[in-house]
């Protein structure tokens, strides 16, 4: 593994992320920006943010293998890596049956996508897989730099680390919300999670790690909401991030909920002083 992005990253929407946002997050101490959803295969949003910063890593989270042409992605990778060596990560994923036409055999589709990237010269240590289940985790262990996951808890992170071994990257994404009113925070979190918890891949993975139909039936249990969205003050959120790192994460990508996501992310970074202190 030749990229170590550091323990704290930030999710931004590819269409909305600005150079100003990227510079602010780099200044706050974030080590990576993850472009949410499926950016286009030309990777122009990633290139724009890299052009505006000096050190921060930018990754896709995740390119949808049914939508983003692998050959175009490879060409884009080489174009950007030529300018910003070591600062681009390609996260890819199999999408979801509910939204992707022609969705079949996701592991086979991702494996074929990896073959195309490899043949085009994209190094395996620059590619992460959105791996939730055992088969995709095994593929990540064998053919990628590691795994990039969403809607997971420290228990899934622990299982992913066991599956991948000590030398691969394990990068969970986690919702965060600065709100010390627990009831209000849970309602905000429920609104954000509701569309995602209806997706079979996410719900199935949560069942594998111990959640039940009661937890996963709308309006969803408090214990599930609390596990998927860290809320409270910045110090409480930092404790939740430490739990992910203790479970085996190299890095945690933060999805900030609320009206001022950059402000939320800056406050959390300040609460941890420097992201490296999360390893303590």
Topology:
Layout: E1 8-13, H1 19-28, E2 32-36, H2 44-51, E3 57-61, E4 63-64, H3 70-81, E5 88-93, H4 106-119, E6 127-129, H5 134-143, E7 146-149, H6 154-164, E8 169-178, H7 182-197, H8 200-208, H9 213-216, H10 222-228, E9 229-232, H11 234-246, E10 252-256, H12 261-271
Parallel strand pairs: 1-2, 1-10, 2-3, 3-5, 4-5, 5-6, 6-7, 7-8, 8-9, 8-10
Helix pairs in contact: 1-12, 3-4, 7-10, 11-12
What does this structure look like?
With 280 residues, the chain is an alpha/beta fold. The chain has helices at residues 19-28, 44-51, 70-81, 106-119, 134-143, 154-164, 182-197, 200-208, 213-216, 222-228, 234-246, 261-271, and strands spanning 8-13, 32-36, 57-61, 63-64, 88-93, 127-129, 146-149, 169-178, 229-232, 252-256. α5 links the parallel β6 and β7. α1 packs parallel to α12 and α11 (234-246) packs across α12. The protein is globular and about 50 Å long. The mean pLDDT is 92.
List the main descriptive attributes of the protein structure presented here.
single chain, 280 residues, alpha/beta, eight-stranded parallel barrel, 12 helices, 45% helix, globular
Low-confidence stretches: none
- The side-by-side strand order for the widest beta sheet comes to 1-2-3-5-6-7-8-10
Task: List SSEs in N-to-C order.
Answer: EHEHEEHEHEHEHEHHHHEHEH
H/I helix tally = 12
* Strand percent estimate: 15-25%
**Form type:** globular
Helix content: 40-55%
Average pLDDT, rounded to a whole number, is 92
Radius of gyration: 17 Å
Helix and strand content put the structural class at alpha/beta
- Largest beta sheet, briefly? 8 strands, parallel, barrel
Q: How widely separated are the two ends?
A: 22 Å
- E-strand count: 10
